[in-house]
């Protein structure tokens, strides 16, 4: 079997995003890697993320799925977008303190400026714990101009860094 190279992806510094921001003291501080055609993140979900009886809260699982979808689009398409829908199927509970892997894979792109991305959460035993399917819409030039300039500039910087990863 061929070894898949694990390529670390750059991240924006100083943002307060709950999932990937480096400035959020209670955030997840997710880091992302490219493995073949998948974007992945490995992390431990601590006790502060509990819902019922020492199990990870479903909203945290949803956050992980949404974030991996976003980073999959950012990494593989390097385009501005919004998530239109995210459908999650919860398959197995995740105990707090568990190491998990979340991964995203680009499924398809349509002519109408939309795309579908699959998300997968693997539990500590490597089995599927949740699956997700998201529809995203790429932003038009008009909509991109409505994004605050500092955010546009930062995302363009990130797209350029990712472009360098693929060279």
Task: Report what the structure shows.
The chain is of the alpha+beta class and 167 residues long. The protein has a single domain (6-153), classed as Thiol Ester Dehydrase, Chain A. 25% of the residues lie in helices and 34% in strands. The protein is built from three helices and seven strands. A seven-stranded antiparallel β-sheet has the order 1-2-3-5-6-7-4, with helices on one face. β6 (114-122) and β7 form a beta hairpin. The longest helix has 20 residues, at 58-77. The mean pLDDT is 94.
Keywords:
7 strands; Thiol Ester Dehydrase, Chain A; 3 helices; globular; alpha+beta; 7-stranded antiparallel beta sheet; about 170 residues; single chain
Gist of the model:
With 167 residues, the chain is α+β, with helices and mostly antiparallel strands. The chain has helices at residues 58-77, 141-145, 149-165, and strands spanning 6-8, 33-35, 38-45, 81-90, 98-109, 114-122, 128-138.
Q: Give me the Rg, rounded.
A: 16 Å
- Count of DSSP E strands? 7
- pLDDT below 50 for ≥5 consecutive residues: which ranges? none
| Number of contiguous helices | 3
Strand order of the largest sheet: 1-2-3-5-6-7-4
Which percent band covers the strand fraction?
A: 25-35%
By CATH reckoning, the class would read: Alpha Beta
Structural class: alpha+beta
Assembly classification: single chain
The end-to-end span amounts to 25 Å
- Give the H and E element order: EEEHEEEEHH
CATH fold call: Thiol Ester Dehydrase, Chain A
What is the average per-residue confidence, as pLDDT, rounded to a whole number? 94
Estimate the helix proportion, in percent: 25-40%
* Overall body shape: globular
CATH superfamily: Hotdog Thioesterase
């Amino acid at each position: 079997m061929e070894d898949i190279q694990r390529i670390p992806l750059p991240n924006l510094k100083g943002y307060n995003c709950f999932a990937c921001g480096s400035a959020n003291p209670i955030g997840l501080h997710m880091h992302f890697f490219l493995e073949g055609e998948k974007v992945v993140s490995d992390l431990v979900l601590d006790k502060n993320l509990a819902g019922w009886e020492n199990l990870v809260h479903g909203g945290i699982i949803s956050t992980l799925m949404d974030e991996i979808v976003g980073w999959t689009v950012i990494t593989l398409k390097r385009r501005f977008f919004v998530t239109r829908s995210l459908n999650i199927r919860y398959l197995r509970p995740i105990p707090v303190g568990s190491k998990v892997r979340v991964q995203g894979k680009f499924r398809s792109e349509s002519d109408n400026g939309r795309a579908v991305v699959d998300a997968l959460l693997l539990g500590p035993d490597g089995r599927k714990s949740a699956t997700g399917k998201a529809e995203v819409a790429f932003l038009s030039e008009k909509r991109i101009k409505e994004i605050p300039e500092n955010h546009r500039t930062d995302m363009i910087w990130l797209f350029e860094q990712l472009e360098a990863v693929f060279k």
